[in-house]
What does this fold into?
Amino acid sequence: MSAVLAVLVKDLRLAWRDRAGWLTAAAFAAISVLVYSFAFDLATTDVRPLLPGVLWTTFLFAGVFASGAGFQREAEEGTFDALLLSPVSPTVVFLGKLLSNLIALVVIEFALLIAATILFDEPLLTPELVAIVMLGTAGYVSLTTLLGTLGSGPRTRAVLLPVMALPLLVPMLIAAVRATGDTLGLFGGEAPWVMLLGVFALWSTLTAVILFPLAVER
Amino acid sequence: MSAAQRLYRLRWVVLPPLTGIGILAMLVGAVVAAPRELVEGDVQRLMYIHIPSAFAMYLAVAVLFAASIMVLWKRDMRWDAAARGAAGVGVLFSGFALATGSLWGKPTWGVYWQWDARLTSTLVLFLILIAYLLARTVSDPDDEQSARYSAVYAIVGSLDVPLIMMSVRWWRTLHPQPIVARLDPQLPGSMGLVLLISTIAILLLTVWLIALRTDTERLGQRLLGLRAAVDRREEA
Amino acid sequence: MDGQLGYLFAGFAVFWAGLFVYLLLLQARIRTLSREVERLEDRLEEAEATGTPPRTGAGR
It folds into this structure.
């Protein structure tokens, strides 16, 4: 546990030192919410039904970009390989990375929720919605972290990461958009979307934690 | 030598004639023998390609999944060749399933594309297979690190399949589209028989293609090994 | 009903043409690969005949 904490602190410090990558992801997310609300406002008078889709596509793109960017420096400097060669187990390395990505993404997402509350005039910081956002983020961050640390070169990773990650995240995206819509009273569905989100989060975290050590083993 | 290995050695003797016979039977069955569907007409004969292609895709995914586990477990690059072969053939057949599905959907549903549960999950699987191939082919065929990473992606992708199906089914069942045509659950016996024959034929074709593709990938790996050997010689 | 035959034909055409093109491409790739493998094997044999000792173990 203390090892996870140590790696987490190291990763967070690294994320802070390398904030350009994260800030780019955050700026990208903020701008896409702005552009969405602007473009949709031109097309339809009622933007509200589109809100869950806007939020989650933005979250996903921001998450995928951030996981790639956050890892780039480490891959280039070789600190990641050094960490894997150290006596710390790969699982711990992965958990630290996962938690630091999660924390950074949650910060970005809260900022986005506040921005969307203002732009769409809809109270978004409700406890239910915050819970859904956290659950959904826990679901996708483990997969984007896993895939972000994979791949041979940083250049190919930056291009490939969205292509690889987004199809895998389709179930999570559907469940998250539906669950968000339900809490906003947009579409009346009865399917247990929140449960599916939970199952996805559990599944993706377990799979990633089990497979990561196998992938980096040499 | 185990029975499986002995069988694998015989693949070029067994597979081509069996596949040939199967495909012929499928053609005769689908074009001539099967009765004309009363509601949909002759277009329904696309079923004999469409449904087997979907099965073939799932077979390819199963092979990809198994081979990827073996890549991680045995560290043998031969399994990586098999995984890439299966992924390539999977892309081919999921493409067939999507294309024939669209061409069947236009006259029966009135549209080429619907966000129907099965179509959506096939499309997502198609994208996952393409992503696997892209990720694997950006590095050399004998790059073991890349093989392991890609194997992880293939495993995650295969395990994702039930979740994808569950999510799209819930999504679509609760919000049905106005035009939904479903395959008649009670197929007449002769149609069922032709469908069975077509499925066997196309699955044989799939196995054959996967074996062929795997051997091609092996050849590529051998080529890289030879290049390295020649380089070493000429340096010496 | 008659217009539907076009769709049936298109579906079958996509399948057979796709399969044919795929096999053709695969065949071409196998041919170039095996030619290259043969060429390299010859070169390796030649090198062996002239008697240069291998620095590291012989190739696979």
Summary: Residues 14-177+190-226 of chain B form one domain. Confidence is low (pLDDT under 50) at residues 174-181 of chain B.
